[in-house]
Design a protein that fits this description.
By secondary structure, the protein is α/β, with parallel strands linked by helices. It contains six helices and five strands, in the order E-E-H-E-H-E-E-H-H-H-H. Helix 4 packs across helix 5.
Amino acid sequence: MKLAASISLAAQFILLAVAPRGTPAPRPQHRAPIQHFVCNTGYTLERCRKDLAVLRSALAKYPVAQLGDWTWILVRSEDWKAILVPRGLDPDSPAFTYYPQKETFIEEVLVGEVPGRHRELLLKWNMSMKDLLDFALAHEVGHALCNDRDEWNANRVGQMLRDGNTPSCGVNLEAKIRAGERRKAR
């Protein structure tokens, strides 16, 4: 569950409208962070909505609003390995986070039925898909909350989240991003 290469994959994805139809309400000056949910091209609208509902439900117990604006991207299992392998990522890792674009990619098998891939991940991770979904989301939220690429730390923070505890990373994501932007400007 490593950081993706520097190429943003967002252009390969379609946005599923999550806002109600009609005239948008004026936004308050200090709006709440928005969690965006998108599906990889090739998803049918019906399947996308169904799988996103599972993802949203699984994320509900985690403090994702603390991430600020964030995008959760479902990728079809048939496309997963072709995305991860060229970037040097483990193809049996069912999720990864790309910090610069505030994106987390989730493999379809975690939220929907993909029998062959389900078996591969069951053998690799030795846990049910429900447990693996929970583990992967907590792990990725751990990376994102702490803006930390370290796998051990993401596992530690993920475990704290799964146990219902609120982890403290010392410095929040927005502060780390601003610090990084100041270094780039020099």
